[in-house]
């Protein structure tokens, strides 16, 4: 008989397998230059698939030894660090906006990845710390607390960036309005997810274990983390399926160009191709002739 937590894990396994396939499709659909948010969602989906697979193995195959095993330490690490690709997907989506964002905000959203990577390292270090296995449940070490606190700081910056960019909505085109609307809608669900992680990391202050990732309440984790991420990733993928693909963006660019600009661009491309052909064929011949002439003169 599968336990309550096992049922949640099986449902999560199915949903994130679908999400992973859709993320791959969105990454291919939008091309390499616009695929960063979808690559982050692929990483998130793979983390969640690995996490629930390990959790199922730990709880269903070894139900009496689930707490404080190497398997559950891996589950805890993956549960926490999967917020990193979710943060990166959100900041990358905001970075796809043009005029509402501005140059300074673009750099801020790019530099936001640095503390996110630092938090990921801290969470992994805290998860493999032997102190995390002390007691009957998985414990948040000081490194884990520092990593989750960095998540909280990054979330505050992300909310501020979203508010600033949304205030310039009058500069956005229809595609950018869709992106900003989706990010704004996802923020309340994102907040609940971050609050859950904060409660887990600092629950020792009020002596409860309800928010513990391994042995806490499955219902609380389901409502505050699992379903929240279902909604956020679903919103992002729905957005990705609705945004213009690479071919549509090229058609729009061509439609905005006049005939003289298209002709000059075509001629410039032909010139580049011919220059490449000349460089590949004539230059080796000239180098060989120079070498032969030098040999003849020396002899």
From TrEMBL:
The chain crosses the membrane at residues 6-28, 107-128, 148-171, 183-206, 218-239, 273-293. It holds the Pfam family DUF7702. InterPro entries: DUF7702 (IPR056119). Residues 3-243 form the DUF7702 domain. This is DUF7702 domain-containing protein. Keywords: Membrane, Transmembrane, Transmembrane helix.
């Amino acid at each position: 008989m599968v336990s309550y937590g096992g049922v949640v894990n099986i449902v999560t396994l199915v949903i994130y397998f679908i999400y992973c396939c859709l993320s791959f499709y969105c990454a291919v659909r939008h091309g390499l230059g616009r695929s960063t948010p979808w690559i982050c969602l692929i990483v998130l989906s793979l983390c969640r698939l690995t996490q629930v697979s390990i959790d199922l193995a730990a709880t269903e195959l070894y139900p009496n030894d689930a707490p404080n095993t190497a398997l559950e330490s891996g589950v805890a690490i993956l549960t926490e660090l999967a917020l990193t690709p979710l943060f990166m997907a959100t900041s990358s989506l905001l970075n796809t906006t043009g005029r509402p964002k501005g140059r300074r905000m673009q750099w801020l959203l790019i530099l936001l990845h640095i503390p996110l990577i630092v938090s990921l390292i801290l969470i992994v270090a805290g998860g493999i710390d032997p102190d995390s296995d002390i007691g009957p449940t998985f414990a948040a070490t000081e490194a884990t607390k520092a990593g989750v606190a960095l998540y909280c700081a990054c979330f505050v910056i992300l909310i501020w960036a979203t508010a600033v960019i949304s205030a310039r909505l009058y500069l956005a085109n229809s595609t950018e309005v869709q992106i900003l609307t989706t990010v704004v809608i996802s923020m309340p669900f994102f907040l609940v997810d971050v609050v859950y992680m904060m409660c887990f990391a600092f629950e020792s202050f009020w002596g409860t274990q309800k928010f513990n990732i391994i042995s806490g309440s499955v219902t609380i984790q389901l409502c505050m983390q699992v379903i929240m991420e279902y909604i956020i990733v679903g919103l992002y993928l729905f957005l990705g399926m609705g945004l213009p693909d690479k071919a549509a963006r090229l058609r729009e660019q061509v439609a905005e160009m006049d005939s003289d600009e298209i002709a000059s661009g075509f001629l410039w491309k032909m010139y580049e191709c011919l220059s490449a052909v000349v460089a590949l064929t004539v230059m080796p011949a000239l180098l060989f002739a120079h070498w032969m002439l030098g040999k003849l003169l020396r002899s």
